[in-house]
Amino acid sequence: MRIGVPKEIKVQEYRVGAQPAGVREFVRAGHEVLVETGAGGGSGFRDDDFAQAGATIVGDAADAWSADMVIKVKEPIASEYSYFRKDLILYTYLHLAAVPELTKALLESQVKGVAYETITDGSGGLPLLRPMSEIAGRMSVQVGAASLQKEHGGKGILLGGVPGTRRGRVTIIGGGVVGTAAARIAIGMGAHVTVLDLSADRMTYLEDIFGNLIETLHSNPENIEESVRRSDLVVGGVLIPGGAAPKLVSRKLISEMEPGSVVADVAVDQGGCIETCRPTTHDDPTYEVDGVVHYCVANMPGAVPRTSTYALTNATLRYALDLAREGVEVCARQNTNLANGINTYAGACTVAGVAEAHGLDFTPLDRLL
Ligand SMILES: NC(=O)c1ccc[n+]([C@@H]2O[C@H](COP(=O)([O-])OP(=O)(O)OC[C@H]3O[C@@H](n4cnc5c(N)ncnc54)[C@H](O)[C@@H]3O)[C@@H](O)[C@H]2O)c1
Description:
By secondary structure, the chain is an alpha/beta fold. The protein has helices spanning 20-28, 47-52, 61-65, 100-108, 130-147, 177-189, 200-210, 221-229, 251-255, 305-334, 336-339, 352-358; strands spanning 2-5, 32-36, 56-58, 69-71, 89-92, 112-115, 169-173, 192-197, 214-218, 233-236, 262-265, 286-289, 292-295, 342-345, 348-349.
């Protein structure tokens, strides 16, 4: 199969859909890989790195898009829709429920749209969202610690403290992938860490792996209020699958925090779990409400494209190899988890949530295969 890797053209997107090691695997499996010149630049890969791995470097986007399967990172933007054509396999994050015009373009051109974010694993997890949550969770404490510095508007404390001073207090709401990664870094920095979750299993797991280095608390208004009020840094990491994040920290509670405290609401991409949260960008990542510094960047992994590209492509490669070897139809019949990733097929919308979001007919994939 011919596999295309175009350069990402969405503003501030520096990741790339494949890394040289992945190209090597495709080539070893007998496929041809067309990488658009400069595609890896933002992630630190030169054209030469791809060429040495066996890729053909192509001069413009249209050449990369002429392949049988295109591997990307972000959903295509309007100027890329003209590359869509019947039976093209498009393997990327699509987030179609949020982009009606892209959904329409994929359906009209009968692209086989395979979305990273809906591929599942055997235990109901989302393996291609997980690496980005791992990154955002780790970053939330890194940026939170920096925001606590005086010159960034913070109260001027060091999260880990030093002998003879109190340690910083970190509250993490939601102990899933983001929350666990945040806890790992906060513990590593020497902070006092409290994680609130609704799931007893999740809290048991966290205590098993972190022992006495964290405190877990059932997530209820009383525990949230008490914990947030005395925190230096609050990380928001809740997720209600398929739904908006519940507002667990009220504006009133924010006003009761010490001035110069910091909140990093990672769940901002689902509306945020802190009432005062609104999405920000890496250009202007923070703002202040009632003296509390808010960091609410909706695409946190974008700041570390090199790590993000490795983490993402490590996770996407195995499905890409299956798709390239077997094609969409055989993969979908053999692997339910991969079938769950197929959002558009033969002009039909095959994910109920996307169909519902846009008032389209939903067609179960197995009816089309
Ligand atoms: N901003 C970014 O760049 C970025 C990057 C990656 C992920 N995210 C977002 O971060 C959020 C968390 O992702 P995740 O992968 O950790 O999800 P996850 O499913 O692994 O974890 C979510 C956790 O929230 C818990 N939870 C649900 N309701 C709760 C409540 N009322 N109180 C406390 N805990 C509750 C769940 O039990 C679960 O443990 C998602 O919205 C995700 O989209 C944002």
